[in-house]
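PROTEIN DESIGN WORKSHEET
SECTION A - STRUCTURE
LENGTH: 241
TOKENS:
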């Protein structure tokens, strides 16, 4: 940890904490791109599935469903690129963006996930300290990445049937039997959207709770990149790497 990334940030009534640069600019940008893209995709996808606005127009004029589909498709491309960029950061990014923050490969991370779970089921008064993702949060995000990849796969599978035969995306027609046909892919695509919405809701609630209980700047960190941790936790993290 470079010296310029650490600064004193005392919190009243608690041990002295230091400000640590955890989330680099790429992690933060990708985080917000994925979030806002998903909001647009959820709205446009819901309309495509169940049109709730009907506008009468002449045949030669732009039509609403076509516009919504175009917005959905190009937003999906940005979303897909952002998700894959985040996966790349798991292997080339900063230590707190790496894959081992999501998949627990040490006994320390497994124990951390268990202790975090105890906090959420009221068997522990405070959540365990963590500089980057705590172990349970990392596991939940790992599941979310799998959900995103399935959403992407089913989305391209649906699009592959309306694209031109020489389009590179036509290759996704090979996944149609895997999802039990186009209707199966459409059903799974829709269900996964609601699962992802539930994930976002629980994520927002947990971030607010953790930031309130721990006073570590969890909420603000995705804007500034900095979180506040005790010197002891910083030293323990360094020993664990």
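SECTION B - SEQUENCE
RESIDUE ASSIGNMENT:
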């Amino acid at each position: 940890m470079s010296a310029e990334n650490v600064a004193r940030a005392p919190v009243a009534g608690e041990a002295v904490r230091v400000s640590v640069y955890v989330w680099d600019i790429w992690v933060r940008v990708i985080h917000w791109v994925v979030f806002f893209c998903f909001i647009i995709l959820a709205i446009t996808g819901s309309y495509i599935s169940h049109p709730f606005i009907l506008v009468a127009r002449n045949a030669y004029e732009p039509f609403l469903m076509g516009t919504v589909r175009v917005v959905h498709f190009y937003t999906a491309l940005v979303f897909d690129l952002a998700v894959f960029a985040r996966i790349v950061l798991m292997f080339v990014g900063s230590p707190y963006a790496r894959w081992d923050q999501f998949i627990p490969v040490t006994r320390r991370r497994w124990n951390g996930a268990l202790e975090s779970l105890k906090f959420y089921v009221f068997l522990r008064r405070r959540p365990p300290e963590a500089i980057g993702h705590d172990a349970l949060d990392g596991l939940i995000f790992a599941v979310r990445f799998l959900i995103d990849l399935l959403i992407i796969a089913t989305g391209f599978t649906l699009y592959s049937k309306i694209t031109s035969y020489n389009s590179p995306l036509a290759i996704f027609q090979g996944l149609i039997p895997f999802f039990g046909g186009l209707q199966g892919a459409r059903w799974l695509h829709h269900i996964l959207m609601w699962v992802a919405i539930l994930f976002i809701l629980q994520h927002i609630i947990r971030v607010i709770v953790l930031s309130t209980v721990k006073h570590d700047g969890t909420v603000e960190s995705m804007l500034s990149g900095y979180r506040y941790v005790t010197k002891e936790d910083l030293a323990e993290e360094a020993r664990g790497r």
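SECTION C - NOTES
Residues 1-12 have pLDDT under 50 and may be disordered.
The two ends are 12 Å apart (CA to CA).
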